[in-house]
Amino acid sequence: MHPTQGARNLNVFWIRGVMKLFKMCMASLLLVSMAYAMPLNSSARSCVPGDLLQLISVDYRALKDSPTAMALKQQLMPDNIKQFEAALKAIGLDPDKDVDTLAFASFHAGKQGVKTVGVAAGPFNMKAVLKKMKLQKFVPKKYGTADIYPMDGGFVMSFLDDSTLLFGDSTSIRVALDTREGQVLGLDTNGNMADMMSSVDSAPVWSILDQAGTQNMMRSAMGDASKVADYDTVKKRLLGSRYTLSFSSGVNFDLAVLTSDSTTAATVSSLLKGYMLYKKMSATPAEKIAVENTTVESDSSNVQVHFKASDQQFQSLMHSELFAAVTH
After folding, report:
1. CB count, 10 Å around CB of 152?
2. Where are the domains of the chain?
3. Which pTM was predicted?
4. Which DSSP state fits 223?
């Protein structure tokens, strides 16, 4: 369920890296001004299992402040997000007005495999929603102290509090609720993922990815370069990664890959830089923009990748063959 399959080369990855924040691990879910950014609220955090693969959080409200973000949302929004928004509307909630933040957590659920749960937070009128669901003859099922309601599109949902809505499939919801009740170890027991989250959760859009997902992502990003001996040596020393994305001044995508030591970080950084130079020689105009707007550096034990483009540059990328190739 890690979003790491099929990248053809590094140029493709830099665009895909931005897109990954819009495509969730589950089947790829997703779709931001800093003034609106906020950490995951306590109700949402309490439901995230400790055996976490990836966590993505998006500030829905800031989409309206950026024409580029809105255009990107329209172009990339997958069917399952459309279904979720339709399901919200069916119970009287308007995603554009009633949802402030949306988060998705992908995690191991024992024999159930990999599962994903979503949390929507906003100024809901919970009483009005429950009244409408009753009129529509949506009957809740009791699970511990929680009420689980069916939704359109195959989702089920449960209110964590007056302003936080948990949704997903039946199994995912139950694991999340068990986590809240302390029957399953929670996010705070996973020190690596919790630490990474604290470094990015003030951004409008952010994501954290576990060790295995990071290793797969970097292998995919580096294409043939990942087959060299140096990469095979350092692969196991990649510990995790974190992303942020903002639209406050153009498009800014930042990726930090955490490694075990400064030597590993420097090696990975050198491999990426070399591969970028190699690919730039035969790049198309769109690919050259992606490469030229990307910097790679090592900072202590971290590899820092930064992509920045103006709104005009990024919107031209959105209409390129390269962009179409990595988003379909």
Report:
1. 15
2. 25-187, 191-326
3. 0.82
4. G
Domain spanning 25-187: CATH 1.20.1070: no
Closest CA to 268 of 309, 233, 242, 292: 233
On whether the CB atoms of residues 37 and 204 are closer than 8 A, the answer is yes
Give the phi and the psi of residue 59 in degrees, each rounded to 5: -85, 105
Q: What length does the chain have? A: 328
CA 290/CA 294 separation, integer angstroms: 6
Q: What is the DSSP letter of 39?
A: P
The encoded tokens of residue 35 equal: 């003034």
C-alpha 180/C-alpha 223 separation (Å) is 40
Phi and psi of 228, rounded to 5°?
Answer: -75, 160
Count of C-beta atoms within a 10 Å radius of residue 169: 15
* 273-292 residue pLDDT tens: 887 777 777 777 777 777 88
Instruction: Give the E-state strand segments of the chain in sequence order.
Output: 52-59, 101-108, 114-121, 141-143, 146-150, 156-161, 164-168, 205-209, 238-246, 251-259, 294-299, 302-309
Alpha-carbon dihedral sign for residues 241, 247, 248, 249: positive
Other C-beta atoms closer than 10 Å to the C-beta of 320 total 16
Cα(51)–Cα(105) distance, integer angstroms: 10
pLDDT digits (tens, 9 = 90+) for 21-72: 333 332 233 333 333 345 678 999 999 999 999 998 888 776 677 777 777 7
